[in-house]
Amino acid sequence: MVNDKIIGLNRPQALLHIINANKTYGMWGRGTGKSNGGLGPRGITLMEKMPRAQIGLIVPTYEMAFQKIIGNIVGFWENEIGLVNGTDFVIGKKPPEEWAKPIIPVFKHDYVISHANGCVMPILSLAVEGAGNAFNLQAVLGDEAKFFNERKLKEILRALRGGYKDFGHL
């Protein structure tokens, strides 16, 4: 999906990707680039390693997701990595038929980012009760965690099941 390309990252962003820990919490100051240089490349790494997977994007509200968070992530994908909306990914709509299909089919795409390799990123709002119910997520990313409700977050994290049959080697 993505060819090798040199991108500019600041020190915290570079350390995040060099260390590549299974669990990462970016307690960085404002303007450090958590959304773009943090979540942007991390999302691509997960999608490339786990084609056809479900990677949840946890957000405080859908309004915040579409006004602030997703724009930063997609801006990084487009401007730094060179992905093209409609060719490499689509947001909130059914992907082209010729794209790889996710392991677990998606029938309603309103709150989903779909990628050409079949990986899907359901957008999970903590403002919606049970937003993570019935998902079988292989990974999660989250942004603006200072607004997260801990009880609702724990409920979504129960959907984090790993998909050991397909991705247990990771």
Describe the structure.
It is a single chain. The protein has 170 residues and is α/β, with parallel strands linked by helices. Helix content is 34%, strand content 13%. It has 5 helices and 5 strands, in the order H-H-E-H-E-E-E-E-H-H. The protein has helices at 11-19, 34-49, 62-81, 150-157, 164-167; strands spanning 55-59, 89-91, 112-115, 120-125, 139-142. A 5-stranded mixed sheet has the order 2-3-4-1-5, with helices on both faces. Strand 3 (112-115) and strand 4 form a beta hairpin. Helix 2 (34-49) packs across helix 3 (62-81). The longest helix is centred in the middle third of the chain and has 20 residues, at 62-81. The radius of gyration is 15 Å and the shape is globular.
The ordered string of helix (H) and strand (E) elements is HHEHEEEEHH
Q: Report the principal-axis shape.
A: globular
| Proportion of strand residues | 5-15%
Category by helix and strand content: alpha/beta
**Order of strands side by side in the largest beta sheet?**
2-3-4-1-5
Radius of gyration: 15 Å
Q: What composes the largest sheet? A: 5 strands, mixed
Euclidean distance between termini CA atoms: 19 Å
Based on DSSP secondary structure assignment, what is the total number of beta strands? 5
Please report the number of helical segments.
Answer: 5
Average per-residue pLDDT, rounded, comes to 86
Q: Which spans have pLDDT < 50 for at least 5 consecutive residues? A: none
> Portion of residues in helices?
25-40%
Which assembly state applies to the chains in this document? Answer: single chain
